[in-house]
Amino acid sequence: MEKLPKLGIFSIVIIIVLVIVLAKSAVTVGSGEAGVLYKTFGGGVVTDEPPLGEGFHVVAPWNKVIIYEVRQQEVFEQLKVLSSNGLEIQIDASAWYLPVYNDLGNLHQSLGENYLQRVIQPAIRSAARSVVGRYTPEQLYSSKRDVIQEEIFEETKKILDNQYVQLNEVLVRDVTLPNTIKDAIERKLKQEQESLEYEFRLVTAAKEAEKVIIEAQGKADANRILSASLTDKILQDKGIDATLKLAESPNSKVVIVGGGDSGLPIILGNN
């Protein structure tokens, strides 16, 4: 009878141990995540095998699994950088990134879970300072925003390609200049626009004048050619034709051929 309680206590202890071991061994990797396996007695971080994918996994209770998000993520940066002439410019930018899936073990071993602060943000800041320093505030404010966005992306990507991180995009959302510089640039752009508009009006007026001259010249040439082709005989024949047509009118009664100047007919009416 005394053995039963001892057996029951032992069974309970075994069950508790099994539950603890199972809890330590069971790992669930969520959607959009991956797990890096750390073998306590087997060489540390596993870098020569793919990470643990989504779902349920069982590992030795003395090992660890470090969970990483492997979906695309975004980091927002508000930077104060200097332009080519030394003026301070504020740039609001964001970057889309994600860890390289098959290199997740190397990423964990070399940079750790806070790789964003250790390498991505410093890379973006360094690239932004380098790129913006090549341009004037006017270029940054107007025509070069897309260019500097692409250049920041390329320079940041060069750094991160060797850091087990994939950079997908860098977006320059806003460029803020000192108010005095911004006002001066806007005035200059307005003046340039007005100048272009005035030049357009001059060109349009010149084309209209040229068109009028060409039309007048064409009419003058046509009249000159027509005048040169008309002879007295042609004019006389035309006059006879016109007179005969008039004679056919009900108001015309008598036609005397050859009675007028140059031999043209004379029409005598009722009156």
Automatic annotation (TrEMBL):
Organism, scientific name: Halomarinibacterium sedimenti
UniProt-recorded name of the protein: Prohibitin family protein
Origin superkingdom: Bacteria
Domain Band residue range list: 24-189
GO annotations of cellular component type: membrane
UniProt cross-references to InterPro entries, sorted A to Z: Band_7 (IPR001107), Prohibitin (IPR000163)
Matches recorded under Pfam families: Band_7 (PF01145)
Membrane-crossing segments per the record: none
